[in-house]
Amino acid sequence: SQQGEEDPQALSIQEGENATMNCSYKTSINNLQWYRQNSGRGLVHLILIRSNEREKHSGRLRVTLDTSKKSSSLLITASRAADTASYFCATEEYGNKLVFGAGTILRVKS
Amino acid sequence: GAGVSQSPSNKVTEKGKDVELRCDPISGHTALYWYRQSLGQGLEFLIYFQGNSAPDKSGLPSDRFSAERTGGSVSTLTIQRTQQEDSAVYLCASSLAPSGMSYNEQFFGPGTRLTVL
Which CA distances in Å does B30 have to A36, A65, A74? Predict the structure, then answer.
């Protein structure tokens, strides 16, 4: 079963704009992770935020976590065409397995 | 490179046949995971190996699916009597150690695209 639900399902923006994707989940978690998947390529880990953290930055990425609302957001600033990909949130539960959402398809137009 | 490798990259089979998918994790990674990704969907957990512990098979969709990990390294996912609904990309990942509250990045292979005709 899917834990994370991403919103929106698809997002199309112009290069240079910011992109925001949201993720909601249902159960208690150890951490929440965001992954990127380019067409025809594997998943790449972007950033992890622990359950006791509220915000984390990595380059042009900013992730927030609100455990009271069981939600997270991923912000990509100053988007580039190369950011075009599917983005997945994944929650880590007991046993270390990741539970993924269905993903947000981001298209950055140049 | 030293990443996770999977073979074959593509597999086309006929309904009812058995298939074996292989995963070579990153050297030294004690944890290995299999996931399945159907078209346009997120990843679905299948099975998790950690060291010599009994694997977590809670995600396997039916008894036609099985996996083994030999010598704590290479893993094989076997699907018996394949069905059309088994068509998907099967992804393998490995990580250094179980996390608890510690960081646990999973490194993914490129996947095997399975098509059951």
Answer: 24, 29, 30
3-class secondary-structure state, position B86: helix
Nearest to A96 among B35, B44, B104 (CB): B104
**Cβ contact B64:B80 at 8 Å:** yes
Determine the pLDDT at residue B72.
Answer: 77
B99/A44 touch (CB, cutoff 8 Å), yes or no:
no
Summarize pLDDT for A42-83 with one digit per residue, the tens.
Answer: 789 999 999 999 999 999 999 999 999 999 999 999 999 999
DSSP designation for A70: T
Question: Cβ separation of A97 and B50 shorter than 8 Å?
Answer: no
Question: Does B105 sit within 8 Å of A98, measured CB to CB?
Answer: no
Which residues from chain A sit within 8 angstroms of residue B50, using beta carbons? 96
Cis bond upstream, residue B110 (ω within 30)? no
**How many other C-beta atoms lie within 10 A of the C-beta of residue B68?**
12
Put simply, the answer to whether B111 touches A42 (Cβ < 8 Å) is yes
How crowded is residue B12: how many other Cβ atoms within 10 Å of its Cβ?
12
